[in-house]
Amino acid sequence: MSIEARLAGLGITLPEVSAPLASYLPVVVHGDLAFVSGQLPFIDGEVFTGTLGDGVSVEEAIPAARACGLMILAQLKAALIPLDRVERVVKLGGFVASAPGFTDQHKVVNGASDLMFEVFGDKGRHARAAVGVPALPVGAAVEVDAVIALAPG
Q1: 3-class DSSP state for residue 103?
Q2: Which candidate among 31, 41, 71, 121 keeps its CA 20 to 30 Å from the CA of 22?
Q3: Of 43, 39, 56, 38, which Cα lies nearest the Cα of 108?
């Protein structure tokens, strides 16, 4: 089954890609690796903002991390990389806007990790970092980047 068919079967529609907010490329392919820049959580066209441990709960932020994962897939597709070329999700880097003392970043970033497994099966299992930071661009609650291994294409 193609990844596009799998997405359709899961009822997943990829979002419209967002333009870079600064001087960088959304996706760079080098050899058989695609490096996807940090993606913000667009939900219904708006960035999900706030700080975990200060007004935003883990339960609210998990879908935001998932939205970052969806944007990663959308950016790959926009870069003309067919999702069927994904040989392995190698690593995700998750950044969570966190108040002092908040220590559940790993639970938040599971939103993106679980999506990758849901879409790609075992090829979606990956290494990961989940890091608490004091602030993210435009006040986003979460940001996720990725390293993706690509099959020859």
Answers
A1: coil
A2: 31
A3: 56
Cα distances (Å, whole numbers) of residue 116 to 5, 71, 89, 111: 15, 12, 7, 9
Residue type, 133: V
Span 10-27, pLDDT tens digits = 999 999 998 898 999 999
> 27, 46, 65, 63: which is closest to 146 by C-alpha?
27
CATH number, domain with residue 129: 3.30.1330.40
CA distances from 100 to 19, 53, 80, 96, 142 (A): 31, 8, 41, 12, 16
pTM (global) more than 0.70: yes
Cβ pair 147, 37 in contact under 8 A: no
State pLDDT tens for residues 135-146. 999 999 999 999
Per the structure, the complete domain to which residue 103 belongs is given by 3-17+26-150
Task: Identify the three-state secondary structure at position 120.
Answer: helix
pLDDT at position 132 is 98
Crossing angle of helices 105-120 and 58-78, in 10° steps, is: 40
